[in-house]
């Protein structure tokens, strides 16, 4: 193995994985004088939910939820500066849309990732080791196979989430015409000759896949079906005060709650981060309305069935698929036969394999999850003094805002302030009108930043009774 020379200075911060959150961290860190950073990703280029860049799909957060603007709107990696570089400021101005097309957000991130000098693609982090007060990071060049190693004082894990294939669908893994919505655009051609297509999942991805299929199958006789476990296709909470759950104020409040309360809240708050947008649901209704003008609505080969759980799935006897279904309210069961299934069944935070050499030094909770402080630093054993930070792996400790793009820049700034031990980015003390704690109750404050690479006090976290298995939808 080729390794770094002993005289090469360590990086102050090394990011593992380059999704939007670590890209935000890279963008905010790049202009900081004297801060040495590197962000690595095994992929050859930046890609963001490429299987769901469906024409017409829009973000569920405003354009200000870019990589930097909610912390530093003067930063050169802002979305407005991207528009300027693309000569699109006037078209965007006249478009008068607060939410971006999803394809444009992806292009914006790729624009930044291609130009940030501290981002390295085609560099797989294969192992993370303790090296005294530092981390030793083993890298593999995915194009040449060349191996190397660098050292870092702090790490930021931003390896993202993985699509969830529910256990009920295990028998359909790797079969044609049965795939997760994350692969939708890549595998949509497999549905070309299907005469009966079923979409499973009530979130934004399920709604967008169902709408796209409706548009593609106008009057060709293909039956389209949308099954959801939720009892209603309720829209995502998007009131102005409701959105204050996606503020640092709510994050601090949530972090101070007992673990079992936090777990229960995340499940109960599904409509804040797992439902479909009211706009997408309205488009589906509008499409069906116009499609049935001049004829009874039951003549359209379309079924929308909420409150229905798929308990098992298997290949059918004649080449199709069979789904065992149970109606939640009545308990009635039936077998559904279909030609194809698209599973919009969410995502789950993944533990990177490269972390295994350090796993015994991490202070996991009783269910194997990270214990994460308000600075997004993971609790570790005393001998691991370097800072280990996580992004979008702290839903259980920081609440529904953890996967939200609107809090990405703020979280990156919190991490940078902690890593440097100073206020690199000034952050507001109050961000919401809502007072989430009762009057007079103490409110949690962000942990004090320490010097680069220094240990911080580890506060015990109340044990969590179960591992969360449901993850947020794309966008919010």
Attribute tags:
five-stranded parallel beta sheet, 476 residues, disordered C terminus, alpha/beta
For the largest beta-sheet, the strand count, sense and barrel status come to: 5 strands, parallel
Task: Decide which structural class fits the backbone.
Answer: alpha/beta
Q: Helical percent range?
A: 10-25%
Radius of gyration (Å): 23 Å
In DSSP terms (H or I, runs of 4 or more residues), the helix count works out at 12
> How do the strands line up in the largest sheet?
5-2-1-9-20
Mean pLDDT: 90
Give the distance, in angstroms, between the N- and C-terminal Cα atoms. 41 Å
Count of DSSP strands = 20
Uncertain stretches of 5 or more adjacent residues: 445-476
Tertiary shape: globular
Q: Approximately how much beta-strand content do the residues carry?
A: 15-25%
Description:
The chain is built from 12 helices and 20 strands. It has 476 residues and is α/β, with parallel strands linked by helices. The strands form 6 sheets. The chain has a 5-stranded parallel β-sheet with strand order 5-2-1-9-20. Helix 1 crosses helix 12 and helix 6 runs parallel beside helix 10 (278-291). The longest helix has 14 residues, at 102-115. The protein starts with 12 loop residues before the first strand and ends in a 56-residue tail after the last helix. 41% of the residues are buried.
